[in-house]
Specification:
By secondary structure, the chain is mainly α. The protein has 2 domains: 147 residues, no CATH class; 74 residues, no CATH class. It has 9 helices and 2 strands, in the order ααααββααααα. The chain has a two-stranded antiparallel ribbon. A hairpin with a 2-residue loop joins β1 and β2. It is flat.
Length: 260
C-alpha cells in the first residue's frame, strides 16, 4: 500500500531511531529558542537539523519545502521591514517606501524560527514510516480509534488514486475517450466517478468488517505484532535531548537570577 506521506524508505541510523525520540527533538527545537530568545540558539539548532537530515540522506527532499517557506518568510520580512510598529532606523528608501532595520531583524528572527521548525519536522516526516509513528503514539496512550483515523489518512488518497487509474484503464479498453478537450473530459468524468465511489464504499465496508473480526472495539489490553525493544541509540537520543533541555532551563534561570 502506497502512502501519502513524504517518508523516504532508506536504511540509515536516523531512520532506525524510534518516532518518539524524533517528536522529542521537535519539542526541544521549539522550546530552546523560547527559553533563550537568541537567534544564535535558533541558528545552531538549524545547523544540527541539517546535519541530521544529511546523515539520514534526505536533505535534498527538504528543498521543495524550503522553497515554499521562503516565499512566506520573504513576505514577512518585507511587511515587517516596512510597516512594523517601532521602526526607527531606516536602511534604504525606494520612493515613498522606507525599509527599517528593526523590522528586518524581527523578520529574520521569524524566518529562522520557521526554518528551525521546518527542518525539525522534516526529520520526523522524512525518516519515519507513518504506520510506525501511529503505533508509537498508540503505545503511549493515544486512542486506537484516533490512531486508526490517522493511519487511514495516509492511505485513503493513494488508494483512491490507484482505484481511479485501474477504472480509467478498464474504461479505455472498452472504447471510452478519457483524453482530449474539456467537453470530452467532462463526459468521461461521471462514468469514471460512479465505479470509484462504489469501490470506495465497498472497501470501507470490508475494512469495517475486518476490524470488527479482529476485535477493534475490544476493551481488553491490546498487544502489538511488533515488540518494541529500545535500542542504545533511542536511549542515548532521549538522554541527550533531556539533558540539553534541562541545562537550558537551569542556565536560563541562573541568568535571570543574575539580572535580578
Amino acid at each position: 500500500m502506497k502512502s501519502i506521506s513524504l517518508y523516504e524508505d532508506l536504511s540509515t541510523p536516523i531512520h532506525r531511531i524510534e518516532p518518539l525520540s524524533k517528536i522529542l527533538y521537535i519539542i526541544v527545537a521549539i522550546l530552546l529558542p523560547v527559553i533563550w530568545r537568541q537567534k544564535m540558539v535558533t541558528l545552531g539548532w538549524i545547523v544540527a537539523s541539517l546535519v541530521i537530515l544529511k546523515l539520514g540522506k534526505v536533505l535534498k527532499r527538504t528543498l521543495p519545502l524550503v522553497g515554499c517557506s521562503a516565499i512566506v518568510i520573504l513576505t514577512v520580512i518585507i511587511i515587517q521591514g516596512l510597516f512594523r510598529a517601532g521602526n526607527t532606523i531606516p536602511i534604504w528608501t525606494i520612493g515613498p517606501l522606507i525599509f527599517y532595520k528593526e523590522g528586518l531583524i524581527f523578520g529574520l528572527g521569524v524566518g529562522l524560527n520557521v526554518l528551525n521548525l521546518l527542518f525539525s519536522v522534516c526529520i520526523l516526516i522524512l525518516t519515519t514510516k507513518p504506520s510506525d509513528l501511529v503505533e508509537a503514539l498508540v503505545r503511549i496512550g493515544l486512542s486506537p480509534r484516533l490512531g486508526y483515523v490517522l493511519g487511514s489518512v495516509f492511505q485513503i488518497i493513494p488508494q483512491m488514486s490507484s482505484t481511479m487509474n485501474t477504472i480509467t484503464d478498464a474504461q479505455r479498453s472498452r472504447g471510452m475517450e478519457t483524453e482530449g478537450n474539456l467537453i470530452i473530459r467532462i463526459k468521461a468524468f461521471f462514468p469514471l466517478m460512479g465505479p470509484v465511489v462504489m469501490n470506495s464504499l465497498i472497501a470501507t465496508r470490508e475494512r469495517a468488517i475486518a476490524l470488527e473480526v479482529r476485535g477493534f472495539n475490544s476493551t481488553q489490553k491490546r498487544t502489538y505484532i511488533n515488540v518494541y525493544q529500545p535500542t542504545r541509540a533511542d536511549r542515548m537520543s532521549k538522554i541527550v535531548l533531556f539533558a540539553i533541555l534541562g541545562i537550558s532551563l537551569v542556565g536560563r534561570l541562573f541568568v535571570w537570577q543574575q539580572l535580578l
